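quick one
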Amino acid sequence: MDLVVNGVEHALDLDPRTTLLDALREHLHLTGAKKGCDHGQCGACTVLLDGRRVNSCLILAISQQGVPVTTVEGLGTEREPHPVQQGFLDHDGFQCGYCTPGQICSAVGMLDEVARGWPSAVTRDGDDGPLDDAEIRERMSGNLCRCGAYANIVPAIAQAAGR
Amino acid sequence: MRTFGYAPADDVASAVSLLATAPGGTYLAGGTNLVDLMKLGVATPDVLVDINRLPLHEVTRLPGGGLRIGAGVRNSELAAHPEVRRSYPVLSQALLAGASGQLRNMATTGGNLLQRTRCRYFMDATKPCNKRAPGSGCPARTGDHRNLAVLGASEHCVATHPSDMAVALAALGATVRVAGPDGERDIPVTELHRLPGDTPQVDTVLRHGELITSVDLPELEVARVSAYRKARDRASYAFAVGSVAAAVHAEDGVVHDVRLAFGAVAHRPWRAYAAEQALLGRPATRDSFLAAADAELAAAEPLRDNAFKVTLIRNLVAATLARLTGAGR
Ligand SMILES: Cc1cc2nc3c(=O)[nH]c(=O)nc-3n(C[C@H](O)[C@H](O)[C@H](O)COP(=O)(O)OP(=O)(O)OC[C@H]3O[C@@H](n4cnc5c(N)ncnc54)[C@H](O)[C@@H]3O)c2cc1C
Ligand code: SF4
Ligand code: FES
Ligand code: FES
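structure w/ FE2/S2 (inorganic) cluster:
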């Protein structure tokens, strides 16, 4: 299998049952993406697939050969964090940190969806104003945080959104 | 997970012929339901025909009016499509009410329609379940059925179809286009899913190897004033416990056209024909909305723990139609 992760091509010999999440963590040793529920219910495994946020636990690696995957490791560097990473640092957007890589990848994908004018369940027609807290909460509802760090995650993302 | 052969297809004809020769195989679309069920040992395909490369990713205008939605169009893209938002708001709202941003980016139109029930016994391979293991019994009848069916169920199965999107499609009278080993056919979306009867293991009228290629929406004036209302146990990222898709045209306080469908109450998205009939030509008031809901729900046969759904749907119908018509505010 040929996987393209954070701009690097990898040739791997994997069982067809391997999920993208397990390929990243167990075989490429990119342990940023986390395994929370393994059933699409928590968002800890969120990565970007061709720029779109997805749950890597419900994706078979074999079906994504050649498709660019971005994990939290590919978003920024320690010297130059991605604006979303900077937002989480500035606002203490985590406690234990387990959900954080998923939150960050999800927020990056979410901000791109907003830039493309995609609506959410709380968007009202003709509503092009800034991304308010209700929008952030709804759009980020696919990422659960067991520590309940939501109160700081929302402003972290708001900062990255330029608010 | 049982191991499987992986067969990516490049066009509709090769996908259909790949699966026609694999009696234990199935199609792989977004995988958000299928891969989950494979992990749980509930789905055990020996071949996966990957249909993600098929040219079914477009939303196009039909020559006579209406829209053709490719089976591979992702739920997120469909919800954001300008023509869908403008002409069929109920569909955009239903999609956005479902799952999460991540899941909607993978989930496809075809896969969403064919997702399986979330009945907990069905999803637990260690439990009896007539749908998963025909003849083994239905523990939900006396067990956990709070979120299961109140309409059209049978003694053999009380499962619900969990899709939000399908409820909007039922209200809109969409048509499912299918290609199979014996050629192509069109199926009204309201007839795609079966009632359980004594063969609950069969979800739909599709035959082995049949591939959904698109879903066609008719041009429908009434759909311009439409909405989806979903009740659930938390504010977001949860399946419906009851939902209503509604489109209505009222003039001078009288209902001239109306479409209604209910979600999370039956083995299929439930088009509420009796309620529609009861409303036509009636005043657009809260009382007639409630009476229309009652006309449909008269057939309800709730179980010990899900009678609340009947009241819930009744109230959702009245609230949604009142908002759309501006009645009784
Ligand atoms: C945590 C969680 C929460 C969710 N919440 C909601 C919710 O609130 N509301 C909601 O509506 N849904 C919800 N879902 C379900 C989600 O919408 C479905 O999993 C998704 O729509 C399935 O689409 P898919 O493309 O991933 O299908 P797949 O998983 O790829 O396929 C599902 C089935 O359809 C068959 N299939 C797929 N495409 C075709 C085709 N073109 N022709 C013939 N057969 C085909 C497959 O063989 C398989 O049997 C949730 C899912 C999860 C995991
Ligand atoms: S309701 Fe249907 S799916 Fe659920 S246990 Fe009974 S037979 Fe199985
Ligand atoms: S680990 Fe993938 S959603 Fe929880
Ligand atoms: S910071 Fe601990 S789970 Fe979110």
